[in-house]
Amino acid sequence: MILIGICGGTASGKTTLSNKISQYLKNFNYSANEISLDNYYKDLSNISFEERCNVNFDSPKSIDIELFYQHLCALKKGKDVKIPIYSYKLHNRTKQTKLVTNSSFIITEGLFIFLEKRLRKCFDLKIYLDINYKIRHSRRLHRDIIERGRDRNEVENRFKSMIDVMHNKYVDKTKEYADVILKSNDNFEIIEQVLNSFLNEFKK
Predict the structure, then answer these.
(1) 20 to 30 A from 57, CA-CA: which of 50, 82, 115, 144?
(2) What is the pLDDT of residues 8-60, one digit of tens each?
(3) If pLDDT is split at 50, 70 and 90, which confidence band does 2 have?
(4) Domain spans of the chain?
């Protein structure tokens, strides 16, 4: 099993690239599953919705890194895992889980997946999306307002006080660990070349 990691700032296109890689592999009849680090936000059922609205979800402290690491290790051993399902509208985990079964490829994306050495060692391929700040800011505004029903002022304030600060402190620095750094979401040809090398190994 090949484990692929996709990192990058908020709204850099991590999920889109994950979907694209998954579909590319399935076109060659290889099984592929996708996991988002967002599903590993800590359970905040013990506090009110109003309190959850003020939580810094762009800090690594908001993530259950230990559970995420345990699941990566289990998948590497060929085991199935049940990952949490997160609700952006509730700012909390739901009671449901998603079964991720053993497959040829697992594609994982998230802000902090390269932050710890033990996590980085799990990945066979590490991709970092180094996308322009203005593009990410515009995408985040659109996504949170249109798709997640957030107030524009709330999104703007969160971006200035949390998102940008956490990106510079934690996320941006991890691009030095990437095997591939993409400056544009359109450079899929580079990823194709790397994926094809894995596929050639499978054929052998």
Answers:
(1) 82
(2) 999 999 999 999 999 999 999 999 999 999 999 999 999 999 899 889 999 99
(3) very high
(4) 2-193
User: How far apart (Å, rounded) are the C-alpha atoms in residues 60 and 53?
Assistant: 16
Q: Dump pLDDT digits (tens) for 117-165.
A: 999 999 999 999 999 989 998 888 888 777 776 777 777 778 888 889 9
Question: pLDDT tens digit string along 152-194?
Answer: 777 777 888 888 999 999 999 999 999 999 998 888 999 999 9
The two structure tokens encoding residue 35: 């996991």
Q: Quick one: angle between helices 188-203 and 14-26, nearest 10?
A: 40
Q: What is the pLDDT of residue 149?
A: 67
Show the 3-state SS of the chain. CEEEEEEECCCCCHHHHHHHHHHHHHCCCCCEEEEEHHHHECCCCCCCHHHHCCCCCCCHHHECHHHHHHHHHHHHCCCCEEEEEEECCCCEEEEEEEEECCCCEEEEECCCCCCCHHHHCCCCEEEEECCCHHHHHHHHHHHHHHHCCCCHHHHHHHHHHHHHHHHHHHHHHHHHHCCEEECCCCCHHHHHHHHHHHHHHHHC
